[in-house]
Amino acid sequence: MSADQTATPARSLGAGFEPFLERLDAEGEALAARTEAWSAINSGSFELAGLKLMRAPLLDAASALPGEVTEVELQPSQRVRPDGEVIDIEHGVSIRVRVRPEAPVQVALTGHYDTVFPAAHPFQKPWREGAMLRGPGTADMKGGIAVMLAALQAFEATPGAKRVGYEVLLSPDEEVGSMASAPLLAELGARAHLGMTYEPALADGALVDARKGSGNFSLILKGRAAHVGRAFNDGRSAVLAAAEAALALNALNGQRDGVTVNVGAIDGGSAVNVVPDRAVLRFNIRSPDTEGAAWGEAEARRIAAAAAARDGISAHLHGGITRPPKPLNDQQRTIVSWTRTAGEALGLDLKFQASGGVCEGNNLAAAGCPNIDTLGPCGGGLHSDQEFALLSTFSERAKLSFLLLAGLERGVFDVGSLRS
Questions:
Q1: Spatial separation of the C-alpha atoms in residues 182 and 364, rounded to whole Å
Q2: What domain range is 316 assigned to?
Q3: How many alpha carbons lie under 13 Å from residue 405 in its C-beta half-sphere?
Q4: Which of 279, 311, 386, 393 has a CA 20 to 30 Å removed from the CA of 69?
Q5: Over residues 235-257, mean pLDDT
Q6: Is 189 in contact with 365 (CB distance < 8 Å)?
Q7: Backbone dihedral region of 164: left (phi > 0), alpha (psi from -120 to 50 degrees) or beta?
Q8: d(Cα 59, Cα 43) in Å, to the nearest integer?
Q9: Which of 94, 30, 67 is nearest to 155 (CA)?
Q10: Which residues have C-beta within 8 Å of that of residue 306, sequence separation ≥ 6?
Q11: How far, in whole angstroms, is CA 177 from its chain's centroid?
Q12: Are residues 154 and 228 in the same domain?
């Protein structure tokens, strides 16, 4: 698309909204301070007490929106223990805000308030370092939630806000695969015309337009224990069966374009004088398209069946592709072009790139909802004690979201063509 073609919609989009954009400019420090306070609350995915503490300020912040704020209990998900037993895992509560569900345009806005850092992790407190706000969740994605809510509050002050309805869903389990919140995301994605998700943009300002799909698997293997001195040949080693399966899984790499298989861990065994009778092999499969994902899952099942065919070994494969691929299709190209137009109205030349990572944007896309899923502040060092968000981008990205919503309200962005 040429500059001449995009200049008119970009100018049209920004015209008349200057006071609202100035208001968001002035709120940059407040957004950073809110994120800093939220970052100081540990909310690791399995820290139920911390997640409950984090909900209190989120509920308070969400109450500034005109819709009803509710808490949605989630069903337990399953997890395989190192001994091979499958147990239920309890999760926190999702927060949902529905505003004008009868409006002709419906938007899904999603975020997560869990982090990868348990309470025992040393990375707990935020601090400022030059142009950066460092701390757990400052970018991924408590900062993103702050940006989302600020954009929505500014949009609510516009005269035409009533023409756009939306639903905010804040989940407690994204960092562990969104297994419990997946049904809510699917339901939301099926209703909305488009989605806006607040994972951080890259440190250089780029956003993500397509994502691989991902699935986590656990191959549970059971053999026969035996004393290695008295009855070694009577034993059947589950650890050796797991090792052979791991090598077979690794050999899948390079067989299909873009599909990767990562063997993450093998749990099993105890004393070296005992033939180990239990093992759990944990691995991840990623693919850029649904065909590759189906191939990878079928190959994993074939390898599991081969392990079960060994003398004295039983095998059970747990897991699957739980976040389908988010390809760069025509719907995604359209919403990417809208985001570029909104960025141009702010003087931003936004870049997009594909990612091997996964997020709630995968879930929304699988439900038929095209979405931009990196609308949070720019940042980096994710999932490490080097995590940071760039302070100057809190207001910048809030303005970007505001203009996307304003473009929907003004009809600059035609959702009818998007979902057709």
A1: 9
A2: 213-323
A3: 35
A4: 393
A5: 98
A6: yes
A7: beta
A8: 15
A9: 67
A10: 245, 248
A11: 8
A12: no
pLDDT of residue 419: 66
Indicate whether 206 and 338 sit together in one domain. Answer: yes
| Residue 225: burial class (beta carbons within 10 Å; 0-12, 13-18, 19+) | middle
Look up the CATH number of the domain holding residue 231: 3.30.70.360
C-alpha distance across the termini of the chain, in Å:
22
Using the structure block, give the residue that is written with the tokens 């250089």.
Answer: 204
Q: Any bridge partners for residue 380, and if so which?
A: 388
Q: How far is CA 101 from the centre of its chain?
A: 24
- CB-count exposure of residue 313 (10 Å: 0-12, 13-18, 19+): buried
Q: Which tokens belong to 252?
A: 């899948």
Reduce the DSSP state of residue 74 to 3 states and report it. coil
The distance of Cα 96 from the centroid of its chain, to the nearest Å, equals 17
Domain identity same for 283 and 141: no
Residues 6+ apart with CB under 8 A from 243: 266
- Per-residue pLDDT of 185-225, as tens digits, reads 999 999 999 999 999 999 999 999 999 999 999 999 999 99
